[in-house]
Amino acid sequence: QVQLVEFGGGLVQAGGSLRLSCTASGLTFSRYSMAWFRQAPGKEREFVVGVSWSSGNTYYTGSVKGRFTISRDNAKNTVYLQMNSLKPEDTAVYYCAASARELTYSGSYYRRRELYDFWGQGTQVTVSS
User: Fold this and answer.
1) Which residue from 6, 17, 42, 119 has the least number of CB within 10 angstroms?
2) Mapping DSSP to helix (H, G, I), strand (E, B) and coil, where does residue 50 land?
3) What are phi and psi of 99, to 5 degrees?
């Protein structure tokens, strides 16, 4: 069965960096678009960053652009999220997600939770001020 497992969450001071990873199994990783979502207490799960499987295009929510970078290593079935210049507002549970579809700007398609077929269990990121 398909499984996505996140690693790398933890506690970091504001301004610091953290690198998350998500390793997938049970799917043809190179044929899946990958994304990271996050959910803070009392808030809805929101899109953070994503990368399309075919075009390689990347998508970033405005609040993290210039600070976060998504990358993937298909040989390792792993997608990464490099987070720099972290802020307390970044505190949340971060979830890895996979989609068999391409990510597009049309209708904010890449941001929609329903686009994604599989989800990881999440990893906690806490940024202290």
Assistant:
1) 42
2) strand
3) -135, 140
